[in-house]
Design goal:
268 residues; mainly alpha; 3-stranded mixed β-sheet
Length: 268
Amino acid sequence: MNGIVINIDPIIFHIGGYELRWYTLAIMSAIVAAVLITARQARRKGIATEEIYSLALWVVVAGVLGARLFHVIDKLSYYAANPLQIIQFQQGGLAIWGALAGGGVAVVVYAWARHLPLGKLVDALAPALLTAHIIGRFGCIVNGDAYGGVTSLPWAFIYIHPNASIPPSLFGLPTHPYPVYEMLWNAMSLLVIWQLGRHFKRDGLVFLSYLSLYSVGRFMLTFVRQEDITLWGFQQAQIIALLVLVGAVAGMLYLAKARREQRQEELA
């Protein structure tokens, strides 16, 4: 069989009843990177660094809870039979769409409560989120929880460690390295929005561009994954991606229209 053998123990070490996983380390690293990048970007937009550090705790808590909730709903039959597994966050199973939903609510509420410019704030978040996506997927590579379908491609991943989270039916078989695909797409998207940010004059457009690019990538790449079909032959992540894409494009059109109207008023 062609492929890259992944024989890394997802668990780094045990201390009593606690275990540290590569997945946990990747998520923690992603959060730290996201906070630092957001703080730097926000400072350039006139938002105090202290506000970002205060916001970070709320976003992380809401994001993790949302990510876990979406994952549990997606795998409801499994967690209904194994309810204690719901709180085993360290073993993987955090849906990115849920993290965006939960964290997004926290950002909106915090911006409203602190009277912060929401458009500037979410634009500062966009490159940080893409960077966090990339870092977090390193944990998925070791964990084996974001697997693709069987493939004969030479860059396939073959999980052979008994602690890997890949299903028994795919254990030892060459599968699409989905985390790598998403990391490459997100890296490209990061370069695009970084360039767009230099030209956009309307707050919020960078963030909406991020949502659009991520949605397109997630919709296309999810075809190589093996998840439950939700609706119209699509998986849950794809349905959400389509809805987010429609919302993001609608938001961009609205901001573009508002920009044109403002120019017309200035010229009148």
